[in-house]
Amino acid sequence: MVNNKKTLIILIFCLVSFEVIKGAVFTNLFAPSSMQPYKMANYAQFELIASSPNLLTNIIQITPWGDIQRIRLVKTNNAFDTLKIKFPINYFSWTPFSFRFTPQTNGEITIVLSGPYEENTNHIPYTQMNLWDNIEISGAEITNGNFEEVKGNQPIGWLSKGGVANSGPIPSYKGRYYGRTSSNKTIETSFAVKSSTTITFNLFARSMPSAIEKVMRRILSKNTPAHTAAKKFARGINLTHYLELNPEKSAQPPYIYSDFQMMKSEGFDHIRLPIAFQHYVLDTNYNLNPIVFSKIEVIITNAFLNNLNVILCWSGFEEFRSKPTEYTNLLFQVWRQISDFYNLYPENLAFELIDSPTASLNAQSLNTIYQNILNIIREKNPERTIFIYPPESSVNYLNYLNLPYEDDNLIVSVKVFEPVYFTHQGMDYNGLDLKELVGIVFPGPPKKPFVLKNPDKFQEPVKDWISKYNKLPSDINPCSNRSYEYYLSTARQWSEYLGRPIYVSGFGACSYADSESRSKYYSQFRKYLDESNIGWSIYDWSFEFKYIDKARNQPLDGMHEALFGK
Known about the structure:
Elements: H1 2-30, E1 43-50, E2 60-61, E3 67-75, E4 78-88, E5 95-101, E6 107-113, E7 130-138, E8 150-151, E9 154-155, E10 159-161, E11 164-166, E12 178-181, E13 186-193, E14 199-207, H2 225-230, E15 235-238, H3 257-266, E16 270-275, H4 291-305, E17 309-314, H5 318-322, H6 328-341, E18 349-352, H7 363-380, E19 386-388, E20 410-415, H8 420-423, E21 428-429, E22 432-433, H9 460-471, H10 482-498, E23 502-507, H11 515-531, E24 535-538, E25 548-549, E26 554-555, H12 559-564
Parallel strand pairs: 15-16, 15-24, 16-17, 17-18, 18-19, 19-20, 20-23, 23-24
Antiparallel strand pairs: 1-4, 1-6, 2-5, 3-4, 5-14, 6-13, 7-12, 7-14, 8-9, 10-13, 11-12, 21-22, 25-26
Helix pairs in contact: 6-7
């Protein structure tokens, strides 16, 4: 009887325990999650908070990328200035940021290292980690700015509000440790400043992918088919104003055989041909009008006869950019026809998938689209070199790419047109009317200040740029090498880290700029690319960004020397 009672008690205990555990399990499964979703940060964020007014004054942003926003807070009749600072970062390299300011009074400033704040569709904030290292301040002293002094995971000299100091798995910029923060897990410290003493602030930041976040697998070899192919696409030129236009506006090719002869004799080794294939789709089955292949064939034949390699690029597909999911089937079916048509062509013909895919397409969807197109092309063109863009063709979106590891004949294309107020002066650019900016020289500052004729026509970013262009010395002027070096440096570091060649498919300055400024810009830009082993193609042969003067049948002044150094 006793044994039966014990057995009954044990059974009841087990049943009750099971119900408790079962309830806990099902509660956890179906209750709203309190855990923050993780997302890799695309930008770094931190704040400087002044203890009194007139401390954060005379601000000069040295690094041309990023944004410094001043916020004035009033608490119990006391005004506090705050600088909210954001700049782009990535997971494969450390990104620098620098600025300076000159306080008008003595006081104390607090630096708060945090991170981006963004909510998902359920209004739950993402955890986006920012990594920090090598914080240096000239004109003041900061404690433990390299985070090498720690106690546990707490950086000595910093107040932790959830933020920590770590070593690994990401390598530090310098030394062993770095700071790690997010929007709700910060670290902060304060430093004293003196009136009229200029403070120059320098730091480095990086993003950190989570263990569950899928990032592109690195290729360690520097001798892949893509690296071999990249040597054939080192110095190119875009053939614009033809097949990327509506066929009604591009009936006759603006390029004749002698153009290709001159391209080769000048030193170019390839052409890049933008094509709006969507204009040649005939029906709902997405069949292409054969005339498009006839038009392309004329260009390819002239190029091959002059030993110029060719990149065919799908360009100007605005419908896909605005409604990407609605046009994926067209994209797939047209690429199948392109792949079938050119499957027997030699290896000096390459494909570029889609120019400037929209940034509104999430990373997973874009990578899936790319994978599907690659699968289609590889059926008939297993060894064809293929160029692929990040969203918007921008270096800032290289984080999004996740190319298949097993396909090692892929080259990544980007475009860099900085500084756009110089390179696109006199033109329309991404909705900006820059027609009144003619006369911007490179590098700045100009000998005489540039004056806007109709300043009310322009928004504050343009006016601010002009002000800095007129006043700042050349080493920190927004119209200088610094304006594009971040983008090219980031592209180079991405290439070195991931083991994929990178290619700048478009750079240049329009012919509204003076010839001396143009030649300086092309020369310095090109030298940086060549020293970084990055292939390039310029805009363009004989139009707004023209290389050649058709009337004289020779390059514009200084252009040959700028691009080929002789």
